[in-house]
Design brief:
The chain is of the alpha/beta class and about 600 residues long. The chain is about 65% helix and about 10% strand. The protein is elongated and about 120 Å long.
Length: about 600
């Protein structure tokens, strides 16, 4: 089942996420390859638990056969002492082994889970990221993984060993004295009732905590990314108030779980002490009457601690257990979201010989309700330069996104050299068709690593050569360390034009057959606008290109202009032919020319300065 969350415009938060229905079953599939190590860890846990159970038997033997025995008291006491020491030593050794093995096992599982989640996020469609908040995804890879790590590495050992000790201790108690066992277990119905009430209230409460944590992280990530905009518009107090609301919601959620714990944990402790009192009273009576020995009563008290102490430990772990459970549901819920664009086995690769692009009766909607493109039919000759123009919301970006196969059309086809893009492998489409966004994105790394999109030092010269062929090597050569300049924080040390040039050099190095651009120069500072335009010109040589033109001067240089309005192609032609029609394009051109003289005058002043 495929689900993506849309943003709530009122609160700015994404609604409830898709949660996995069977997270433990999903987790077992990932743990199954580690079965041999899991079996070894289980052996260590069992042996350590058995060693712990042996100590009360040594106490029982020492009291009944040694201190209160009729013969060989010293021998029996010595035997009980040696047996107890041996049991404690074995428990120590195997406890260390179980901790080390469970830690290795847990880290191996978490390593694979992190790899799997990251790879899956990378494979999801563009529309998923249009609707999902980045901070929430960051929370999946950070706070949720940390919750699992805390439980798997530390809490899981306590949980398993405690439950095993409880079961084994109960079996030993029944064998020693069923009467005393039944008496001590008389508090169990109350404990079961308290546990049921606690679980019913705690499960949704802990899920709410995880959701509030992800919302706080999403807001924090968003504000850190846009901190310059926040400061530029003096929005610090307003955004602090919005964060305060989310922070208070998390505080209330955490406080609610604390109130639930304050009810349950003291109940467990009280019932445990009540069981001890029952054993002391009724056990003493049975011992005095000769039904059982005093050593049995002493051993019983030890074993009771192995029953109620594990219950208390499990109770104290409930917070971690619920956090881990909520994290599992969210992580595997994310893994269950399937990408819409999936290659079937045997899907052929896209083979581009000329680069002709055709759209045939294409319809598309983002939400299945409002059409973004309607009955679009378009022929783009191989090797031609195409400019797409139109008002905001006309469908320009959507048209280009379908050509890049970020989406498949709802109906109709998009073809390249006669091949339906929906029926060829997505990887081959990405190799042959490259989209250059308006804003050049910069990763953490050096300039050449950003151009090559690779950290392999063998590609350094190739990246520099690509920049040189594009005529922009002097721009990066002037940086403090040249192409080896380290870029961090989204490349804030670079100008907008320099970041865009990295994107253009990156596209040039990919050697695509079809190039799609969101007009580069429209978001570039004047100082590097000329270098960007020259780079774009070189980049487009010999390729089919489609440019979203935000300036009509760009459209005048195109071989074909596509005019869009309300999701339809309303006109196509050259600049001169479209002006003669006196239609949509001619009206846009007239409006543009009324604005351009003033802008040109300002630009000339800047250039002279």
């Amino acid at each position: 089942m495929r689900r993506s969350a849309a943003l709530d415009p009122k609160e700015g938060e994404a609604p409830e996420e898709h949660l996995a229905a069977h997270p433990l079953r999903c987790a077992w599939r990932d743990v199954r390859p580690l079965a041999p190590r899991l079996a070894l860890a289980a052996v260590f846990v069992v042996v350590a638990s058995l060693a712990k159970l042996a100590v009360p038997q040594a106490v029982r033997f020492g009291i009944d056969r040694g201190a209160l025995g009729e013969s060989d008291k010293i021998y029996n006491l010595s035997l009980a002492f040696l047996f107890g020491v041996a049991a404690l030593a074995a428990g120590y050794v195997f406890s260390r082994l179980q901790v080390a093995e469970v830690a290795r096992l847990g880290e191996a599982y978490l390593f694979e889970l992190r790899r799997k989640v990251f790879a899956h996020i990378q494979s999801l469609d563009v529309d998923f990221f249009d609707k999902e908040r980045t901070g929430r995804l960051v929370a999946r890879m950070t706070s949720d993984i940390e919750s699992l790590q805390s439980f798997v590495i530390q809490g899981l050992i306590v949980l398993v060993s405690s439950l095993l000790a409880l079961v084994l201790s109960l079996a030993v108690l029944l064998k020693m004295s069923w009467q005393l066992t039944l008496a001590s277990m008389s508090v169990m119905p109350l404990l079961v009732l308290a546990t049921i009430v606690f679980r019913r209230r705690a499960d949704p409460a802990y899920l709410r905590v995880r959701e509030r944590v992800s919302q706080v992280m999403a807001r924090l990530q968003e504000n850190l990314t846009g901190v310059r905009v926040v400061q530029a518009y003096a929005r610090e107090e307003r955004d602090a108030d919005r964060f305060e609301g989310l922070n208070e919601a998390q505080f209330e959620a955490q406080l609610h779980t604390a109130r639930l714990q304050s009810f349950y944990f003291p109940v467990v402790e009280f019932l445990g002490m009540s069981a001890v009192a029952i054993v002391l009273g009724y056990g003493s009576y049975l011992a005095v009457s000769g039904t059982i020995g005093f050593g049995v009563v002493a051993a019983f008290l030890f074993y009771l601690s192995n029953i109620f102490e594990p219950l208390q430990q499990v109770s104290m772990l409930y917070n971690e257990l619920q956090a881990a459970s909520a994290a599992l549901k969210k992580l595997y819920g994310l893994l269950e979201i399937e990408p819409r664009l999936v290659d079937l086995p045997g899907t052929p690769a896209l083979r581009v010989s000329r680069g002709a692009v055709a759209l045939e009766e294409v319809d598309f909607s983002y939400d299945g309700i409002r059409p973004a493109l309607r009955d679009v039919t378009l022929e783009i000759p191989a090797g031609s330069r195409v400019a797409v123009v139109g008002k905001t919301g006309a469908g320009k970006s959507t048209l280009v996104k379908l050509m890049a196969r970020f989406y498949d059309p709802d109906s109709g086809t998009v073809r390249v050299d006669g091949q339906d893009l929906a029926k060829v492998s997505l990887k081959s489409v990405r190799k042959q068709i490259v989209f250059v966004p308006q804003e050049g994105f910069v990763f953490s790394g050096t300039v050449w690593q950003n151009i090559a999109m690779d950290f392999d030092s063998g590609r350094r010269e190739e990246a520099i050569a690509a920049a040189r062929e594009l005529g922009v090597d002097h721009v990066f050569g002037s940086l403090p360390e040249g192409f080896d300049t380290l870029l961090t924080g989204g490349g804030q040390i670079l100008s907008a034009g320099q970041r865009q040039l990295i994107g253009l050099a990156r596209a040039y190095m990919a050697r695509p057959s079809v190039l799609l651009l969101d007009e580069a120069a429209s978001a570039v500072d004047p100082a590097t606008a000329e270098a960007v335009e020259e780079a774009v010109s070189r980049l487009l040589e010999g390729k089919t290109s489609v440019t979203i033109a935000h300036r009509l001067t760009t459209a005048t240089r195109a071989d074909l202009i596509v005019v869009m309005a309300d999701g339809r192609v309303v006109e196509t032609g050259t600049h001169e032919s479209l002006l003669k029609r006196e239609g949509h394009y001619a009206a846009m051109w007239a409006s543009w020319n009324r604005r351009v003289p003033m802008a040109s005058a300002r630009q000339e002043v800047v250039s002279e300065e």
